[in-house]
Automatic annotation (TrEMBL):
<comment type="function">
    <text>Ferredoxin are iron-sulfur proteins that transfer electrons in a wide variety of metabolic reactions. Although the function of this ferredoxin is unknown it is probable that it has a role as a cellular electron transfer protein. Involved in the in vivo assembly of the Fe-S clusters in a wide variety of iron-sulfur proteins.</text>
</comment>
<dbReference type="InterPro" id="IPR001055">
    <property type="entry name" value="Adrenodoxin-like"/>
</dbReference>
<keyword id="KW-0001">2Fe-2S</keyword>
<dbReference type="GO" id="GO:0051537">
    <property type="term" value="F:2 iron, 2 sulfur cluster binding"/>
</dbReference>
<feature type="domain" description="2Fe-2S ferredoxin-type">
    <location>
        <begin position="2"/>
        <end position="104"/>
    </location>
</feature>
<keyword id="KW-0408">Iron</keyword>
<dbReference type="InterPro" id="IPR036010">
    <property type="entry name" value="2Fe-2S_ferredoxin-like_sf"/>
</dbReference>
<dbReference type="InterPro" id="IPR018298">
    <property type="entry name" value="Adrenodoxin_Fe-S_BS"/>
</dbReference>
<comment type="similarity">
    <text>Belongs to the adrenodoxin/putidaredoxin family.</text>
</comment>
<dbReference type="InterPro" id="IPR001041">
    <property type="entry name" value="2Fe-2S_ferredoxin-type"/>
</dbReference>
<dbReference type="GO" id="GO:0009055">
    <property type="term" value="F:electron transfer activity"/>
</dbReference>
<dbReference type="InterPro" id="IPR011536">
    <property type="entry name" value="Fdx_isc"/>
</dbReference>
<dbReference type="GO" id="GO:0005829">
    <property type="term" value="C:cytosol"/>
</dbReference>
<dbReference type="GO" id="GO:0140647">
    <property type="term" value="P:P450-containing electron transport chain"/>
</dbReference>
<keyword id="KW-0813">Transport</keyword>
<protein>
    <recommendedName>
        <fullName>2Fe-2S ferredoxin</fullName>
    </recommendedName>
</protein>
<dbReference type="GO" id="GO:0046872">
    <property type="term" value="F:metal ion binding"/>
</dbReference>
Length: 112
């Protein structure tokens, strides 16, 4: 069973965490199920960047991002080559090491 290792982050997971995942689950769903409240303003519809994460290890095992996700990621704060939207990145069989950025851009709430 693959694991998702969340790196320590003051706001979301101060001590870090090791989470059990099922192949095919999204990083976001695994985090939420384990009480790690990654923001997801668009309710997992790939319409914002609030669930942006950086996959430090295991990136190549994830499903490939599609054009819509890539377009959204272009708007993410702190974009890196290993950035993904956690609502779209599906766990495969490899363990992942995930960094949750300290800041996100909430286009959904800022539009009001």
């Amino acid at each position: 069973m693959p694991k998702i290792i969340i790196l320590p982050n003051e706001e979301h997971c101060p001590d870090g965490a090791v989470l059990e995942a099922q192949s095919g689950e999204t990083i976001l769903d695994v985090a939420l199920r384990n009480g790690i409240e990654i923001e997801h303003a668009c309710e997992k519809s790939c319409a914002c960047t609030t669930c942006h994460v950086v996959v430090r290890e295991g990136f190549d095992s994830l499903n490939e991002s599609d054009e819509l996700e890539d377009d959204m990621l272009d708007k993410a704060w702190g974009l890196e080559p290993e950035s993904r939207l956690s609502c779209q990145a599906r766990v495969a069989d490899d363990d992942l090491v995930v960094d949750i950025p300290r800041y996100t851009v909430n286009l959904a709430s800022e539009a009001h």
